[in-house]
Amino acid sequence: MKKIGLTLLLLFGLNACIQQPKDDGKIHIVVSFYILEDFTEKIGGDLVNVINLTQGGGEPHEFEPSTQDMKILTEAKHIMILGNDFEPWFNDIYDNIKSNDVDVLVLSDGFETLIDQNTNQIDPHIWTSITNAQSMFSIIKDYLIELDPTHEPTYTQNYELYNQEFTQLKAEYTDAIKNRTRNEFVTNHAAFGYLAQEFNLTMIPIMGLEPDAEPSATIMAQIIDVVKAYKIPYILYEDEANTDIAKTIAKETGALTGVLRPIESLNSAQVASNEDYFSLMRENLEWLKKALN
Ligand SMILES: [Zn+2]
Questions:
Q1: Which of 6, 33, 246, 264 fits a disulfide with 188 by CB distance 3.0 to 4.6 angstroms?
Q2: SS (H, E, C) the chain
Q3: What domains appear along the chain, each with residue ranges and CATH number?
Q4: How far is the CA of 222 from the centre of ligand 1 (A)?
């Protein structure tokens, strides 16, 4: 796929600015998954209308646009995706919409990427590093200012408020992880490579980059050996995914189970209780503390 980052956005950006505003006066932005929705709403507030294609517990890795989604994408003026092959469906539809008056912001452009050793695929989950998430937040702020320079003070003010919270969150992680007794944590979905890298931890994934990529019997036996050898106390998983194998490993090894969420989508209970990136990252930290001690 041809990646369109900020450079090309600048070319399209001017065009976007002279668009007739929609009736509600908001900037309408179509995004591919929850993190982009959360960050854009935090900065844009009432000035933006974010349409998340994988809302309501949808699984971004397995997303295929419906007819309704195709209509939304065809009519979109502004689209944000992560890139890094996180949205393989986008390659197919981009040819159909690229001649439209649309700009596409690819959030992962310019970030260093990790390669999964088993599959040689790019690990798309860059946002699980707090530093990366903070940078993505800044890129989205710049994007909104470019689309709507009149409201720059509002975007900047909202950005600064949350930017401090990223710094605070990172300090909480650094502080809590400092006194760990082990570096290894076992997780169902291989989504936390960037988090592991950020805090010098070692992620031992059970499944793969995609939550349904099941391990071979050999890999499973290796994981069981590692869990026993390192006396790893918790097997972590996201509760929305296929957790049978994680539970089996816990049973075989006597480990307990806990939760580690990649925050790719929110289920309805999380939406109802106003969870967001920060609350879920803090919940993840509580589980990590248990798992690393
Ligand atoms: Zn994932």
A1: 246
A2: CCCCCHHHHHHHHHHHHCCCCCCCCCEEEEECCHHHHHHHHHHHHHHEEEEECCCCCCCHHHCCCCHHHHHHHHHCCEEEECCCCCCHHHHHHHHHHCCCCCEEEECCCCCCCEECCCCCCEECCHHHCHHHHHHHHHHHHHHHHHHCHHHHHHHHHHHHHHHHHHHHHHHHHHHHHHCCCCCEEEECCCCCHHHHHHCCCEEEECCCCCCCCCCCHHHHHHHHHHHHHCCCCEEEECCCCCCHHHHHHHHHHCCEEEECCCCCCCCHHHHHCCCCHHHHHHHHHHHHHHHCC
A3: 6-171 (3.40.50.1980), 178-291 (3.40.50.1980)
A4: 22
Tens of pLDDT, residue by residue over 189-240, are: 899 999 999 999 999 998 888 877 788 889 899 999 999 999 999 999 987 6
Residue 162 Cα, ligand 1 centroid: separation in angstroms? 24
Q: What is the pLDDT of residue 22?
A: 53
* Cα-to-centroid distance, 290 and ligand 1 (Å): 22
pLDDT for 20 beyond 60: no
Calculate the average pLDDT of the chain. Answer: 90
- How many Å lie between the centroid of ligand 1 and the Cα of residue 61? 6
| Mean pLDDT along residues 142-153 | 98
